[in-house]
Structure formats: C-alpha cells, structure tokens
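re: the backbone from monday

yeah here it is again, tokenized this time
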C-alpha cells in the first residue's frame, strides 16, 4: 500500500509529531510504501490571495504535495483540533493544494462538480482538549465534518475513518503511551 501521512501540527515537539512517528513505524513494519508531509516545514504562502478568481503559482513544496497526493492510495491526516477546526497552516495548505483542476472541477452552469481524487481511503487522527464524546455530542464535531464530508468526500475520497484522541491537555503519560501504541497498530494495519 502507498501511504501518505500529512501532519498539520506546526510544532515538531508536539504529541502530534509523536503520533505521526508511531503511525509511520507501524506502516513501515507492514511493508507499506510511505511518504510524509509536515506542513509546518513547508515553504508556501497559506493565503489563497485571490480565491479562485486569479491563479497564484504554486510553490515547489505544494507541487510536491500534489504529486504525493496523486501517488498515495491511503492518506493519513494528523492534527490538533484548535477552536473546533484545523490549525491555520493546515487550512492554508488545504486551500492552496486542493485546487479546481487538481482536486475537483465545478460543472458549467451547475451546482455539481467532478471529483478528481478518487479510489483512495483516508484516516484522520486528531487530538483535542475535550473528551471525544463531548466534541461529538455537545459541540457537533465541526472539524470532523469539515475534513471528512466537506473536504475528503468533496474531492472524491469516500472511505474516511476518524480517530479522535482527547482530552489531551490533562492526560497522564499512560494515556499518551496507550494512544501511541494504538496509532502504531493503525499504521501496521494500513488503516
């Protein structure tokens, strides 16, 4: 399996980097082909300055990201949920990479669109400072909906699984180690 892991946390010393490393360890042990993008290490302007009205040339790091997305059979997203959403740098990455003509195309004179990133699966691994049940039932899981339905499904990735880890802020070392092992197993199983 060809796996692309995209880490949306800007801090190399974060628990999200440890989770990404655990997934990678499992995926490599399974014999999967593996690529990784750490968004915070890329050089690009995260602002889609003109929207879709005027094309902004893609930086080399974003062109490489598009190539890796096309290459992958399974795309894994690792990021923290901040203010019910993804980190700003990750949102900028999504805006700049998943462009019309690459990820989708609006149909002329229609509200419908064609999806160009098809035949792939995805896993979202996100951390949060609230219990996952609270995020789901009380807050309505806005980032899950945005990433799964309004982004992955929108561009053609139908099968998207979500692993929500929380509450992280007050967690003990045992909790964090347990999740690192669970995420390594996800990598080993290529899910």
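seq for it, each position gets an aa:
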């Amino acid at each position: 399996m060809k796996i692309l892991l995209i880490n949306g946390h800007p801090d190399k010393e974060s628990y999200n980097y440890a989770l990404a490393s655990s997934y990678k360890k499992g995926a490599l042990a399974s014999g999967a082909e593996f690529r990784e993008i750490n968004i915070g290490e890329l050089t690009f302007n995260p602002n889609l300055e003109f929207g879709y009205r005027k094309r902004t040339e893609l930086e080399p790091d974003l062109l490489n990201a598009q190539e890796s997305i096309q290459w992958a059979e399974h795309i894994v997203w690792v990021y923290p949920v901040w203010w019910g959403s993804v980190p700003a740098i990750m949102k900028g990455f999504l805006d700049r990479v998943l462009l019309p003509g690459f990820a989708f195309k609006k149909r002329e004179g229609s509200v419908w669109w064609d999806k160009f990133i098809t035949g792939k699966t995805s896993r979202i691994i996100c951390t949060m400072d609230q219990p996952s049940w609270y995020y789901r039932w009380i807050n309505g899981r806005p980032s899950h909906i945005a990433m799964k339905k309004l982004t992955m499904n929108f561009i053609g990735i139908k099968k998207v699984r979500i692993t929500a880890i929380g509450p992280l802020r007050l967690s003990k070392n045992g909790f964090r180690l347990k999740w690192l092992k669970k995420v390594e197993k996800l990598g080993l199983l290529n899910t």
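DSSP finds six helices and seven strands in the chain. The mean pLDDT is 97.
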